[in-house]
């Protein structure tokens, strides 16, 4: 196994909590370089890492094969383009880009230069989502009539000193959290026929959107996707109803918190959820009424990096194709259009 020399373009939350620990845990990657404008924290945690201060130091380093673009959203397209043009493979932090044309330009460029381009849609590897998907794939509630997905938080203040709380292109909760949940919906069901969204700011003094309520219409059923920073008492994460029954799941995947606590993704107990958080299934299977808990599938963020390794070194298909993340951006644009017009707009 020849490790892929990898560079991170920042060492904020996504770099320190997610990418660096996952890269460090996978023997197929070698974290060689981190771009930090002033701090040296990355070197404190990873002594063998080289700290650089300018983007061009990463771009011009021929030993770097893979660049993780985990910078502010509006820099994703230009930074990813520079890396691709320099002959490097690229992982872009979600959201892929701010606009669909930006996404299209990166997809075309990656094909032109023959390099791997993917997006860190990590919550495809959440245990709760993997469990929900298995319930759906096994048709345990029969024909779906409604599905509801939540990604709620309680943050009734404006976090200081972060670009995420400043108004601008690609800012706000829909790009931040919505890019995860809309990706999950698109993986399961594809683009909707109609999009009806309401997006706005609920926190006093807020400069960016901090809630959304989205209704996506499909043939015979609809998906509700909601998020708010003002949910102090959590409700279910997923609610699934079908003609035969229902599945309800509380609680969020354990991996983010485990990474924040410095736990290793290679540990044997990684992302194993306690029984008290297992989802509830109430349904009919044949002539039987079945009611009880569904064990949560363990999450596995390392699965993303395993796939990237296989794509780069072995030529295997990407799990997260950039075209899929491009569709997430298109759906976000449709949600904003619907909210602005205060009516449903066509999807697919």
UniProtKB/TrEMBL annotation:
Sorted UniProt keywords: Oxidoreductase
InterPro entries: Gfo/Idh/MocA-like_OxRdtase_C, Gfo/Idh/MocA-like_OxRdtase_N, Gfo/Idh/MocA_oxidoreduct, NAD(P)-bd_dom_sf
UniProt GO molecular function: nucleotide binding; oxidoreductase activity
Residue intervals of the Gfo/Idh/MocA-like oxidoreductase C-terminal domain: 133-344
All residue ranges annotated as the Gfo/Idh/MocA-like oxidoreductase N-terminal domain in the record: 7-119
Protein family per UniProt: Belongs to the Gfo/Idh/MocA family.
Protein name: Oxidoreductase
Native source species: Chryseolinea soli
């Amino acid at each position: 196994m020849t490790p892929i020399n990898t560079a991170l373009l920042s060492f904020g939350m996504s770099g320190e909590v997610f990418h660096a620990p996952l890269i460090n845990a996978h023997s197929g990657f070698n974290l060689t370089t981190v771009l930090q404008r002033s701090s040296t924290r990355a070197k404190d945690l990873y002594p063998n890492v080289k700290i650089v201060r300018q983007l061009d130091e990463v771009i011009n380093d021929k030993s770097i094969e893979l660049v993780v673009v985990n910078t502010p959203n509006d820099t994703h397209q230009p930074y990813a383009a520079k890396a691709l043009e320099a002959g490097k493979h690229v992982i872009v932090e979600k959201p892929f880009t701010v606009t669909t044309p930006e996404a299209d330009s990166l997809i075309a460029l990656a094909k032109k230069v023959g390099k791997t381009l993917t997006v860190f849609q990590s919550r495809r590897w959440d245990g709760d989502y993997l469990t929900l998907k298995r319930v759906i794939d096994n048709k345990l509630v029969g024909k779906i009539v409604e599905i509801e997905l939540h990604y709620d938080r309680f943050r009734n203040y404006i976090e200081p000193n972060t670009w995420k709380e400043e108004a601008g292109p690609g800012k706000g909760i829909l790009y931040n959290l919505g890019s995860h949940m809309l990706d999950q919906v698109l993986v399961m069901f594809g683009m909707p026929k109609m999009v009806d969204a309401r997006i706005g700011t609920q926190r006093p003094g807020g400069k960016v959107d901090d809630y959304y309520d989205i209704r996506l219409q499909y043939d015979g059923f609809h998906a509700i996707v909601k998020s708010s920073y003002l949910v102090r008492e959590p409700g279910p994460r997923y609610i699934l109803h079908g003609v035969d029954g229902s599945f309800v799941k509380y609680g969020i995947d354990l991996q983010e918190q485990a990474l924040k606590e410095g736990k290793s993704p290679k540990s044997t107990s990684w992302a194993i959820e306690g029984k008290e958080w297992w989802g509830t299934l109430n349904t009919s299977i044949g002539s039987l009424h079945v009611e009880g808990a569904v064990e949560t599938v363990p999450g596995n963020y390392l699965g993303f990096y395993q796939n990237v390794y296989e794509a780069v070194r072995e030529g295997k298909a990407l799990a997260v194709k950039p075209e899929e993340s491009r569709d997430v951006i298109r759906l976000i644009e449709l949600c904003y259009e619907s909210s602005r017009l205060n009516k449903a707009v066509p999807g697919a």
